[in-house]
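Much of our argument rests on the idea that a fold can be written as discrete symbols. The amino acid sequence and the backbone structure tokens for this protein are reproduced below:

___
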Amino acid sequence: MNTTTEHVHCLIIGSGPAGYTAAIYAARANLKPVMYQGLQPGGQLTITNDVENFPGYPDGVMGPEMMEDLKKQAERFGTDIRYGLATAVDFSGHPHRVTIDENKEITADAVIIATGASAKWLGIESEARLNGMGVSACAVCDGFFYRGQDVAIVGAGDTAAEEATYLANLCNKVYMLVRKGEMRASKIMQKRVVDNPKIEVLWNTATDEILGQDGVEAVRVKNILTHETREIPIKGFFVAIGHEPNSKIFQPYLHHDEQGYLKTIPGSAKTNVDGVFACGDVQDYTYRQAVTAAGSGCMAALDAERYLAALGDH
């Protein structure tokens, strides 16, 4: 049972580039935004060491440092940033109702959802231990650091095939680890992989362990059919087995695709519920980049401002 209730003008659920950018714009528009940061304040970039592709950082920046910069900028304009996790919502009427940590109810005139998506991982100990030290779930983000070196990527879908091809443009050799004797990727993507001389596909192959102490040095793989193991020297290990949008509590009210990504009206951050907006990776299954997330956060705040102005609330 909810123990306290509070009403806010604009509620932002989730942090990261999308949430913080939405907060900056909303605060500057005097929407008095309140942000609940969620389980991972700052989002996925807090587990990313070097960020070199975000505009404005000519020498690159550490992911946690960049998120702290965005947080400070949002706070500077008056965003009320709080720790807490949205555990339930009710978008059936107005104002919208959001439960925080199962014991506090927030009612809001406008809600911006920026809860992001979580990368799916293999679940082995060395993967977690070396995350950010050679293990990555984003080839576009981190492939640049492995120019001219040997890397491995695990996955069998279009994303894995696309990222393997991307890595092949940068790296000396790409080992693609596929658990079955076939890929799930589209025929054209499979052809690009197989025809690329820098990509070697290891069929029926599972990851046994990622080897290294302070960085990735090799991967030990196991052939599922023969049970033979081998060690492959590499410097980077990429996991491309998919992402899961953090959208479950919203799905009863908001339109979403079969993977759970929230649907927004094209060219906007508007969902099918008036006054509820979605931005960042929770609604972006295509790009999933910090800069695109920030851009969609800006869109969400501007859409929220216009929505509230039309209601006469702003």
Residues 290-311 form the longest helix (22 residues). The mean pLDDT is 94. The helical segments are 16-28, 63-76, 125-129, 139-142, 158-168, 187-195, 290-311.
